[in-house]
Design goal:
With 137 residues, this protein is of the alpha+beta class. It has 3 helices and 9 strands. The protein is 15% helix and 45% strand. The relative contact order is 0.23.
Length: 137
């Protein structure tokens, strides 16, 4: 299928709550725009230490992870981070691999945003079309 990348926005979820509650202005929400490697073999979002610091994400624990080469590594786990791709978003905790080159967008956030890889076009697309429909009562 080849390598697939996606332009995503990452935001500090704690900052989003503070902005919603009027504690900080919206413009102070820490965010970054990254080109993420879409990796269905990864479980969740994987970031490096530089991205973690830029977003001001606190470490909330440790988790064992198996890397692509089969090696096991203990990774730090952040507080929640919001992931946005086009008009879709989700929130999850990220694994921090200090020297990771690429941000990895894994299967769990992809599933939560209802996204799949289109192998012919080598890009992300909505699993049920590109339009997101939300019904709120």
């Amino acid at each position: 299928m080849g390598t697939v990348y996606a332009e995503i926005t990452l935001k500090n979820s704690g900052d989003i709550i503070k902005a919603r509650d009027g504690i900080i202005p919206e413009k102070e929400v820490r965010r970054t725009f990254v080109r993420a490697l879409v990796d269905t073999g990864a479980g969740t979002l994987v970031i490096n230490e530089a991205v973690r610091r830029q977003l001001g994400l606190e470490i909330r624990g440790l988790r064992s992870a198996e890397l692509a080469d089969g090696a096991k590594q203990i990774c730090r786990v952040t507080e929640p981070v919001e992931i946005q791709w086009k008009d879709r978003d989700t929130t999850c905790r990220a694994l921090v691999l200090p020297d990771a080159g690429d941000v990895l967008l894994g299967a769990i956030p992809l599933e939560d945003m209802d996204l799949i890889i289109d192998p012919a076009r080598r890009e992300l697309t909505g699993a049920h079309g590109d339009e997101v429909v939300c019904l709120v009562k």
